[in-house]
């Protein structure tokens, strides 16, 4: 696929996330997608999630744990089969009431028009601190 098509696929994923449209979000992903967000175990959605079922579990975990006050993708960079998105967020951990501010980068790899790999780079310390009581 072309860079503009890959960029559009990733942008559609963010739009679906913003609407809470899980079927549309999953529709942008390859069946065997790998979704990785590393960090301490205190954050329930950090981990290596596989396939549509794994991503669905990730979305349930993050939706159960955090209320986002702000989630803003700010810059999209496409090159070949990669799309990098830079952004920021502010979340409130439901269990502790603590907030975190997080600048993030997400690297997407696309294959045949579908997202096959997602690697999220977070300020894991800021997020983990908000989860600790």
Task: Outline the structure in words.
By secondary structure, the chain is α+β, with helices and mostly antiparallel strands. The protein has helices spanning 3-19, 22-27, 51-65, 124-131, and strands spanning 29-37, 47-50, 66-79, 82-93, 99-111, 114-121. A 6-stranded mixed β-sheet has the order 2-1-6-5-4-3. Strand 5 (99-111) and strand 6 (114-121) form a beta hairpin.
State the assembly state of the protein chains.
Answer: single chain
Major sheet attributes: 6 strands, mixed
Span between N and C termini?
Answer: 46 Å
Helix fraction, binned, reads 25-40%
Q: Helix-strand pattern, N to C?
A: HHEEHEEEEH
Count of strand segments: 6
DSSP strand content:
over 45%
Mean pLDDT over the full residue set: 96
- The computed structural class is alpha+beta
Unreliable spans are none
Strands ordered across the widest β-sheet: 2-1-6-5-4-3
Specify the overall morphology: globular
How many whole angstroms does the radius of gyration measure? 14 Å
């Amino acid at each position: 696929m072309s860079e503009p098509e890959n960029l559009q696929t990733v942008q559609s994923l963010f739009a679906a996330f913003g609407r809470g449209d899980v079927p549309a979000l999953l529709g942008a992903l390859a069946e065997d997608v790998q979704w990785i967000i590393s960090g301490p175990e205190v954050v329930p959605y950090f981990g290596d999630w596989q396939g549509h079922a794994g991503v669905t579990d990730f979305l349930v975990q993050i939706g159960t744990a955090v209320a986002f006050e702000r989630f803003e993708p700010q810059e999209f960079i496409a090159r070949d089969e990669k799309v990098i998105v830079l952004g920021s967020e502010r979340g409130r951990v439901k269990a502790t009431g603590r907030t975190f501010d997080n600048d993030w980068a997400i690297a997407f790899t696309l294959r045949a028009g579908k997202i096959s790999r997602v690697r999220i780079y977070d300020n894991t310390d800021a997020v983990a601190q908000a989860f600790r009581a």
